[in-house]
Amino acid sequence: MNTSTPTTRHEWPFELRFRSLFIEGRGYAFPCDPQGKVVLDSMSEPARCNYLYARAMVGREFDLPVVTSH
After folding, report:
1. Does 63 map to a domain?
2. Structural domains of the chain, count
3. Could you tell me if residue 5 is inside a domain?
4. What are the C-alpha distances in Å from 33 to residues 22, 59, 61?
5. What superkingdom does the record give (predicted)?
6. What global pTM score does this model have?
């Protein structure tokens, strides 16, 4: 593991957000770097499944993801 890779959510200053196309205020958010890259190996199994689902459903259920700072 790269020692410079953040391992907890609080170490990531950015989130990759997938907003629902149909329900206001719904969607998913995942810790990422400034370019929107997530580290799948650092995610729990449910979070990894949610990320892969959201990514696969872009344009059908979710809008294009956006990188935001929190």
Report:
1. yes
2. 1
3. no
4. 27, 23, 24
5. Bacteria
6. 0.81
| 7 lies in some domain | no
Domain span holding position 50: 12-69
> CA angle at residue 30 from 28 to 32, to 5 degrees?
145
pLDDT in tens, 7-48: 555 577 999 999 999 999 999 999 999 999 999 999 999 999
Encoding tokens for residue 40?
A: 């799948």
- Whether 36 is in a domain gets the answer yes
Which residue do the tokens 């410079």 mark? 4
- Torsion angle (degrees, nearest 10) of CA 7, 8, 9, 10: -120
Three-state DSSP at 3 gives coil
